[in-house]
Amino acid sequence: MGQRVQGPRYLLRIDDVCPTMDWQIWDPIEAILVETGVKPILAVVPDNRDPKLMVGPAATDFWDRVRGWQARGWAIGLHGFQHTYVTQDAGLLNLNPQSEFAGLPYEVQLEKIRSGLEIFAREGVRANAWVAPSHSFDVNTLRALREVGLTIICDGFAFHPFRDAMGMTWVPQQFALPRSMPFGTWTFCHHPDLTPEERVELREDLLRLGSRFISLEEAVALGDRKRSPADAMIGMARSAIRLARRWRCLVRRGH
User: Fold this and answer.
1) Where do the structural domains in the chain lie, given as residue ranges?
2) CA of residue 58 relative to chain centroid, distance
């Protein structure tokens, strides 16, 4: 049986961490994390080839920084391989119709994952979890991850972390902005492109909810349970919100 959780618990995930992100934006974000004591999940792209993430000069000390974050107890997620979208497959979560992995043969996905992990290993970094670009991956991705021994996934919808039939532990990622919840384990996701106003809001949110934030390791310890029928409600709610947003966009275009 999984450990019983009293009250809500929160995690913070930050995606698209790579050498060419905007370090003038990142440095204040890192200072906020240090100040508040929140231990985030940093989703690192091993070999970024996405032009959208090339917003500044590459940091020559990038991997030194990553090793430092991990030494501080922050989790490092394997954020795909090159962050390039090669299919229009939305994968298991059916959130975004673009993927670096979903729809590709098992052998191709396995090679990409191995290549990313080889870069991490060369740089002295451990992958603590899998974080798929655009939340898009499929059963072949899970098979490949299990093959290389990476069995923690930061994604999906549930009230708490859970373990699936393949032995993979899912730490769900449900919302973008931090918010107070009555119960459950909730991962909020940001990107390293926050405006000054958004950074102020992030600091306020982390200070307000700080005592409820836990690390990835603590979240995984809560995952000794199966996904319940009630957990599916989160996915249905997200789908309903997504459809409502698309409908509003269509209506606006019609006007």
Assistant:
1) 9-226
2) 22
pLDDT in tens, 136-161: 999 999 999 999 999 999 999 999 99
Cα(176)–Cα(135) distance, integer angstroms: 13
* CB-side neighbour CA atoms (13 Å) of 163: 12
Cα-only R_g, the chain: 18
How far is CA 154 from its chain centroid? 5
Torsions phi, psi for 7 (to 5 deg): 80, 175
Instruction: Give the pTM.
Output: 0.90
Structure tokens at 8: 């809500």
Helix (H/G/I), strand (E/B), else coil: 9: strand
User: How far apart are the C-alpha atoms of 74 and 83, rounded to whole Å?
Assistant: 22
Rounded CA-CA distance 73/81 in Å is 23
What HEC string does 188-223 produce? EEECCCCCHHHHHHHHHHHHHHHHHECCHHHHHCCC
The top-level CATH class assigned to 9-226 is: alpha beta
DSSP for 48-101 reads ---GGG--SPPPTTHHHHHHHHHHTT-EEEE--SS----B---TTTT--S-BSS
Contacts of range 112-116, beta carbons closer than 8 Å, 24 or more positions apart? 112/80, 112/81, 112/82, 113/78, 113/81, 113/141, 113/144, 113/145, 113/148, 113/150, 114/148, 115/46, 115/47, 115/81, 116/46, 116/47, 116/78, 116/80, 116/81
Which pLDDT band holds residue 254 (cuts at 50, 70, 90)?
low
Within 13 Å and on the Cβ side, how many CA atoms surround 246? Answer: 8
